[in-house]
Amino acid sequence: xxxxxxxxxFSTKVKGLVDVAKSTAANNASAGVExxxxxxxQENETLKKxxxxxxxxxxxxxxxxxxxxxxxxxSKLIETWEQRGRTFKxxxxxxxxxxxxxxxxxxxxxxxKSVIDALPENKAEGTQHRKKVMRSDAGIExxxxxxxxxxxxxxxxxxxxxAREAKVE
Length: 169
Description:
Elements: H1 2-83, H2 91-103, H3 106-118, H4 123-132, H5 152-168
Helix pairs in contact: 1-2, 1-3
């Protein structure tokens, strides 16, 4: 009985030591998992920030692309308007009008385009331009003149031939 009681005490102490070892290992493992979890969370936050930055860049690029397309359409509309008779004082005024048209919303731009497209072609200006053009020769044809070859190679060839013929004689 003394031996059994000693064995029971020994087994209880061993079980206690095993339980302490298990809890220490579990605590160490959970501490390692917590550190890994913190690292993963930090990486996740970093990646989220990068994704947000990239989305902002994409939005910026898309906005710039839309603005460039709108500016191109506005420029074409201005060219059409100029063909229909619109004149600008200078390039600054023309650029300001392009910027104004590019800044319009879709409906307003379409309305402006339909109004400009409905304008008649400016044909009067083209005919006035043709009337102003005058011929500098007053319609007189130049006198027909025989063109002689004044090419240096031809003259040298003729001169050498004449010299050779003169020497042979």
